[in-house]
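Query structure, 970 tokens:
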């Protein structure tokens, strides 16, 4: 095993990076599987030379290199106790493209969806489409031979392999592509490692006994999605080995080999014409799983592009997911399962004919209690719902989780109903009601028992069920892995699935490729036991972690962190839309993902021996760039609220290590502004002096926000005598005077007050506390809790559906809907208030619907408006409410920027060490869109931080929606 001194020398020799600190070893100890193995280091190679150096180092020190891209593998392929080699940071180029040949050459770190964005203008796309397509990378798809939802029409990754450039285990470079039989024979001659590989494969597969054994024991060739072991059965198609094909391509053998045979550096793929533009999704609802599978056999006689299943467990999980609840509107009743059948054509007329024929066929066979058709954007919604399946299962509260062990079995389609009937009977015998979803049309369902692997009896059941399912799959000559690979979870079953003789053949092939045992050791061959090296320790007494926030909705803070199952939604890039995760998008470092934060917190809360388990500098490092945008609380299918976890961490950590002066200043901003507002001009001058900013730790390029000449409360008090008491035809509302509006954005408060007043509402501001947002963001949770308790006590008897609480600044008002529920002692009253607490935009949308506010109250002046949504609005509220509000005037043209996070995030962007990354977050999507926006277009941004960041990054002034609408009143 290598020493730290040796690792340091290796690090200095690389053009990329090699990290071997505890934090990086911790966050790379897991992927999206159930396994955990602490590596000795993590490498980010910049070029092929770095990979060669890593291979030589591994050989000299007898350690394993584990290739990794997005780390979304489900079988443990990308965990190991050697060096994790992450190519997702630098190996991200599209090397070449040939539109005529319909081929593209890429490095392994290119994201599947990013590749398709490049191909789309050429009318082409890469077909295999996993549920993780927004962040999974081509290298990983090749390693696992990924398939996804489109395989029934476009095949699997192996079908697309034209050429693979790789580095062998001796550091030599090699190219695997389609060659003739004579060329193959020629490559067996010589003494290089490449020659020996060709020689070994030729000798092994020329052997008639080996051929017969492969044919007899491997899965049925009719099962296209099969990943059991190495794909030697496909090589038998060559005329070299009693087949008929005149050419052979060992690149197809590398596909599905999980990085155990060679280190891939470039991949040339065959791409397809884009699917027909006109599609319809037929969604059938079923009372039983069995009925749904019998319907698949009928449906697959039609020309389908998608045939996917979701069961009631996943559908129920969508009810509590802020993002996916919007995508389930089509569901009728309470189905046990739904099937998604997609038809497509070059004309909508023909697509309708196909869809109607399918519906008629289902109804003729009495399949489905409801069958509906979806079009356009609704198809995108149901596809997103299906893609969220794995992540949604992570949101199940408690220690019972959908376990990865049998989730990738594939059988011939005609065998599927009987196979599942036997499977269901077996599961019933163990008291299990399994979860069913995924690729029914391909004969593959992701089947998951619900187990608590922290309990010894369930760990036994984990193995027992996996073993029995292996026997059942073998009975149908199916594949234990259809697309997720063998890895650790299925590796030990390969000898049973394909026979001991074939398994020994795989070991000899592995030896030929990797004689020094350095490439992803312990995967496919010589694997560890499937119930060892798990994330959770069976029989361990779970630590009881005391927190100031109430995490009872997750059964404690540890289980809140454990909800992260590693699906990697937080690694999406800006082109994928949404906000998650701003810091990763800016840095492209795994350390800055929400996954890394949850994993690190889980690791230290579980294994730390300190009295205060939060007291680790590594946790401070991993949380440092989290901007508490709360995108993870909605866009992560598992609902991992890292902002809440960060606030708790900061509170617990700073209890021991103290609060910095700057944090105290920012946290107590409202109190300091109360003093500063006595002499606002003097205060504004002083706080923006270079020396003062330097001592406060504020970035020199930032201007500290300027205090207004008066406060909003003072203006409101002076206004009371001027308001006519008989003009409030629409009733009374309470306006929350947040600390930002009160001291900085007084004009916005006035606009909102006058807008509501002129529309017939009595606006009342009571003597309440600040929101506590600054205290929460800096981890001053005792102070925040005191504020929450006071505000709940003040408002609990005032707020109702008829007299709602309305807010101006999203981050302030939404504390009532979010953090107060975790902090307030009177939780019942806090929840009651939260139900009638609205942003100004939500209030307008509600009143528009009721008819109290209408377009005739506004001018007909033409105006173009573009909306940038505050992160908390997008997560906890809805930008659609802003859209509805600003569309009130008849001649406004309103659109919403797909703009992610602005990057300011309260005080974050003002802090000198965070200035650059804050601006990079803005540059990722928002700033470029604003720079290309016409100067006559109004930019709407509800967040005060957003407006400041927009000005600093683009020199454009954004306005609060209330200000824009106030100017449109007649």
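Result returned for the query:
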């Amino acid at each position: 095993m290598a020493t730290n001194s040796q690792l340091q020398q290796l690090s200095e020799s690389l053009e990329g990076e090699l990290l071997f600190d505890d934090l990086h070893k911790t966050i790379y100890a897991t992927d999206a599987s159930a396994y955990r193995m602490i590596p000795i280091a993590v490498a980010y190679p910049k070029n092929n030379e770095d990979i060669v150096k890593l291979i030589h180092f591994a050989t000299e020190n007898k350690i394993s290199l584990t290739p990794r891209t997005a780390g979304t593998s489900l079988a443990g392929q990308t965990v190991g106790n050697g060096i994790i080699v992450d190519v997702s940071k630098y190996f991200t180029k599209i090397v070449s493209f040939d539109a005529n040949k319909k081929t593209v050459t890429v490095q392994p770190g290119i994201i599947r969806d990013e590749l398709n964005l490049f191909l789309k203008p050429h009318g082409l796309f890469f077909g295999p489409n996993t549920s993780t397509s927004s962040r999974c990378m081509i290298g990983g798809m090749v390693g696992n031979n990924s398939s996804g939802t489109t395989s029934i029409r476009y095949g699997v990754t192996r079908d697309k392999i034209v050429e693979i450039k790789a580095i062998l285990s001796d550091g030599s470079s090699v190219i695997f592509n389609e060659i003739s039989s004579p060329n193959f024979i020629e490559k067996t001659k010589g003494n290089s490692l490449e020659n020996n590989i060709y020689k070994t494969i030729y000798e092994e597969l020329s052997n008639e006994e080996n051929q017969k054994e492969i044919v007899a024991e491997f899965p049925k060739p009719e099962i296209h999605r099969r990943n059991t072991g190495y794909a030697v059965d496909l090589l038998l198609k060559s005329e070299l080995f009693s087949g008929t094909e005149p050419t052979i391509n060992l690149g197809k053998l590398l596909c599905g080999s999980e990085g155990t045979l060679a280190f891939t550096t470039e991949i040339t793929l065959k791409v397809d014409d884009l699917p027909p533009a006109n599609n319809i999704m037929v969604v059938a609802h079923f009372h039983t799983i069995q009925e749904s599978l019998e319907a698949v056999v009928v449906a697959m006689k039609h020309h389908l592009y998608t045939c996917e299943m979701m069961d009631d467990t996943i559908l129920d999980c969508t009810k509590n997911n802020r993002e996916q609840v919007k995508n389930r509107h089509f569901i009728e009743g309470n189905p046990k399962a739904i099937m998604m059948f997609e038809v497509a054509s070059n004309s909508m007329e023909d697509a309708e004919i196909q869809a109607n024929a399918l519906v008629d066929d289902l109804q003729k066979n009495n399949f489905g209690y409801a069958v509906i058709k979806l079009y356009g954007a609704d198809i995108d919604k149901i596809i997103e719902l299906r893609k969220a399946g794995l992540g949604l299962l992570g949101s199940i509260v408690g220690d019972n989780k959908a376990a990865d062990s049998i989730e990738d079995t594939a059988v011939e389609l005609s065998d599927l109903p009987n196979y599942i009937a036997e499977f269901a009977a077996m599961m019933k015998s163990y008291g299990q009601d399994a979860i069913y979803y995924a690729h029914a049309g391909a004969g593959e369902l992701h089947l998951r028992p619900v187990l608590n692997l922290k309990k010894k009896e369930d760990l036994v059941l984990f193995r027992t069920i996996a073993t029995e399912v292996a026997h059942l799959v073998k009975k149908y000559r199916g594949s234990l892995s259809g697309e997720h690979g063998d890895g650790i979870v299925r590796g030990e079953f390969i000898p049973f699935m394909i026979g001991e003789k074939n398994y020994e053949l795989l070991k000899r092939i592995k030896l030929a490729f990797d004689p020094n045992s350095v490439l992803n050791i312990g995967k496919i061959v010589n694997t560890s036991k499937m119930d060892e090296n798990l994330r959770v320790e069976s029989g361990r007494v779970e630590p009881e972690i005391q927190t100031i926030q109430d995490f009872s909705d997750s059964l404690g803070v540890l289980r809140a962190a454990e909800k992260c199952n590693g699906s990697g939604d937080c690694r999406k890039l800006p082109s994928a839309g949404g906000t998650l995760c701003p810091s990763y998008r800016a840095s492209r470092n795994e350390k800055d993902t929400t996954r890394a934060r949850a994993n690190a917190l889980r690791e230290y809360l579980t294994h730390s021996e300190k009295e205060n388990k939060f007291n680790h500098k590594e946790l401070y490092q991993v949380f440092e760039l989290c901007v508490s945008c709360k995108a993870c609380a909605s866009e992560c299918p598992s609902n991992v609220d890292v902002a809440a976890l960060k606030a708790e961490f900061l509170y617990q950590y700073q209890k021991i290590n103290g609060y910095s002066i700057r944090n105290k200043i920012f946290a107590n901003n409202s109190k300091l502004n109360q003093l500063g507002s006595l002499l606002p001009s003097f205060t504004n001058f002083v706080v923006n002096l270079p020396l003062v900013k330097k001592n406060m730790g504020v970035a020199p390029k930032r201007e500290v926000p300027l205090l207004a000449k008066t406060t909003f409360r003072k203006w409101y008090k002076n206004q009371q005598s001027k308001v006519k008491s008989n003009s409030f035809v629409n009733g009374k509302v309470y306006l929350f005077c947040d600390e930002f509006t009160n001291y900085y954005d007084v004009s916005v408060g006035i606009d909102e007050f006058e807008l509501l007043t002129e529309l017939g509402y009595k606006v009342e501001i009571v003597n309440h506390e600040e929101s506590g947002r600054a205290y929460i963001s800096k981890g001053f949770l005792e102070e925040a809790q005191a504020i929450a308790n006071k505000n709940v006590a003040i408002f609990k008897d005032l707020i109702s559906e008829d007299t709602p609480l309305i807010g101006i600044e999203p981050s302030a008002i939404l504390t009532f809907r979010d953090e107060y529920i975790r902090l307030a002692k009177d939780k019942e009253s806090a929840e009651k208030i939260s139900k009638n607490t609205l942003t100004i935009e939500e209030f307008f949308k509600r009143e528009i619907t009721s008819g109290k506010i209408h377009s005739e109250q506004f001018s007909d002046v033409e105006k173009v408006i573009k909306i940038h949504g505050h992160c908390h609005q997008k997560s906890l509220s809805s930008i659609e409410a802003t859209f509805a509000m600003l569309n009130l005037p008849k001649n406004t043209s309103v659109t919403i920027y797909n703009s992610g996070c602005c990057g300011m995030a309260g005080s974050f962007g003002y802090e000198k060490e965070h200035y650059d990354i804050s601006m990079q977050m803005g540059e990722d999507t928002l700033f470029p869109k604003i720079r290309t926006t016409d100067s006559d277009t109004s930019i709407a941004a509800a967040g005060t931080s957003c407006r400041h960041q927009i000005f600093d990054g683009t020199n454009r002034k954004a306005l609060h929606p209330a200000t824009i609408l106030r100017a449109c009143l007649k």
